[in-house]
Amino acid sequence: AVEPLVPILPDVQAHAYTAILKCKKPADKLTQDESASIMLYTMGWDPPEECLYVALNNTLRAIDRQNALRPWYLYLRLFLNALFRLPLLAVTAYRGVKLDLSRRYIEGETIVWWGFSSCTTSVSVLKSELFLGKIGNRTMFTLHCKSARDIRKHSFYPVEDEVLLMAATQFKVMGSLDQGNLHIIQLEETTPRHPLLQPVHIIGSLSTYPNPPSDSTAASFDISTEKSKAHSNKSQIKTHGATASTSKKTGLKSITGQMSDVKISASINEGKILLFYCLD
Q1: Prediction pTM value
Q2: Angle CA 182–91–86, to nearest 5
């Protein structure tokens, strides 16, 4: 699943192998590979720009993500399968960024975070210099979530009380507070008028089997781009990626090599990216 990423992320196979070894008894009825795909996302290594979560989210936020996402298809199959097996979690979560983003978030406006977003349910975690820290320009998001995924049992850092927001999560800016160098922004997850991540008609399929079982349940999802016709009407929806503070986190034979027979299709449909995979 990560072999196509080696030209982009040279060390990804070594870290994927570490993840699979740590996921021999996965929770939440996930397979070992599915759990490892989440753990791999939570890991970090040097140089930071070659970490999987940094590179993936930069790709999701790119204007030309249709082509840029192609090497990610096999990994995304495992990752999305795993996340959609986890229950939705309505929770207040927090996210810290070592930047002043207050001017980008205007009270009353609706924004979209196109990347996956790691957050914590414990505000004290943000005190760490790896996240928010205590000095310099910082932005802390207080997020009232409806559809977070609890990934603590699959995270490389379970003590961080980590939850994950899906790509293309929409929020309304409820308010903000300027405390000198600390800017606090309150966001509430909202349901888009036109779903940004949704089931669509099957055009292609993806399976870990050369000849998939007849009882496999096929599913597919699309991630709308900023130019989607759903928002062509001058609505106040803005697209933001809350830039993550780069964490120097350090740290599957099956996850790295077994999916050569997987088939996946992608096409452009009125400015949308279509990703197709199977839920076993």
Answers
A1: 0.71
A2: 125
